[in-house]
Amino acid sequence: MIQLNNSIFRTIGEIADEQGVKAYVIGGFVRDYYLHRECKDIDVVVIGSGIAIAEILAEKVKSKVSIFKNFGTAMLRYKDMEIEFVGARKESYRKDSRKPVVEDGTLEDDQNRRDFTVNAMAFALNKENYGELLDPFKGMKDLDAGILRTPLDPDITFSDDPLRMIRAVRFATQLDFEIAPETFEAIKRNRERISIVSKERITTELDKIIMSKKPSKGFLLFDKCGLLELIFPELSALKGVEVIKGKAHKDNFFHTLKVLDNVAEKSDELWLRWAALLHDIAKPRTKAWEESIGWTFHGHEVVGAKMVKNIFRSMKLPMNEKMKYVQKLVLLHLRPIALSQEEVTDSAVRRLLFEAGDDIDDLMTLCEADITSGNNAKVRIYMRNFEVVRTKLKEIEEKDRIRNFQPPIDGGLIMKTYNLPPCSIVGEIKSAIKEAILDGKIENDYEQAYALMEKLAETMIPKELKS
Ligand code: ATP
Ligand code: MG
Questions:
Q1: Distance (Å, rounded) from C-alpha 450 to C-alpha 103?
Q2: Which pLDDT does position 349 carry in this prediction?
Q3: Binding site membership of 161 for ligand 1 (Cβ less than 6 Å)
Q4: Any idea of the CA torsion for 362, 364, 366, 370, to the nearest 10 degrees?
Q5: pTM, whole model, 2 decimals?
Q6: Distance from C-alpha of 369 to C-alpha of 351, rounded to nearest angstrom
Q7: Does the Cβ of 119 fall within 6 Å of ligand 1?
């Protein structure tokens, strides 16, 4: 018996009593309750109609309810919680169809169709046994031991809905649990069936893995069970080390995961973490052996930025400014380190600021995370150089306001001043002014830019065009 303090649970229990049905909180909420994790989405299963109970509750607490008749579910927002009501169901899958046959069922039927024992526990809400834990598969024991195990034969559970294999890896990463050996073996056996699952569902789980405290755990598990090359072939291609004449390059899969974990320690920004995962994604495609240098990956940042688009498209990730942000970080990820290896000139820093704009801090976080060398002396030198770059960035930012910089003279002004039609000369003058500012030849201000425009106009605008 537990003390479910939230009065909303009592209210649901009372309504269920009045209606003569049984109601339970089930799944994630129960698991998270014992793990002391905050959980704001609550699933209530009713032996009977979930929708009917939800409608009465909505009236009582004066909240709006959304009803999904086709699924037999209802969703209600209460305070900061989302409560979903569903009638208990029994699902049977046929080999030739992805869609299960769904019938009304008992609580046990409903628990049978759950993915893991720790996700199949329920708290009773009716007065007679309010707070009682119903745990037919010893989920509590698995929860204590940190184990993910399917309630039924894992071959059946995974074959019925192959997304559950991905969810196993997701929960293992998110909760830092282990997957039971027989469950893991079944993932290996059933992995090919992942092809029937939609990309959107997989990507939702990938996002959750990436947002975990130590995301590498998930990708290592995917690799170990053979799912990685099926759901993320580009990442899988980073694996391995080649040796020529005794020279090896680093294993870019392990390196990438280390960078991802490093970034995860510093930032909760999903897209920065995606950038970490994809920063070296083009290394396999650009890899070459050059006698005089050794292993090279020339242009992997450019090819990588292009690959980001295809990966986002195929994974059904958003094709919007988030994608552009990831592309930008992948494209620029070598720049700060290149900067810190030379003398850090004002003009190079100004150019970096100009190109990175507001994302400069994220870019620096990514680049610092990218230093994964085992050689401590080398790491120390890099880190010190990075400090110099950061200081310089700050100085120049304060002095020149380059971030989000718009050249103080635009094309319209050039055309108006010299009575020019739109033509290439206008663009050339504009870009010469921008370059002069970035190179530090003139300051980022109107007077100096105007003076330069006049000087340029003298030589660049042909006499016959001048009026
Ligand atoms: P989180 O909310 O952190 O994603 P959760 O366990 O609550 O974790 P949900 O996706 O909200 O996961 O699902 C709620 C419950 O529904 C789960 O605890 C599980 O019992 C069940 N469930 C969800 N998806 C599946 C699935 N694909 N197969 C079987 N049961 C599932
Ligand atoms: Mg949930």
A1: 77
A2: 86
A3: yes
A4: 180
A5: 0.89
A6: 22
A7: yes
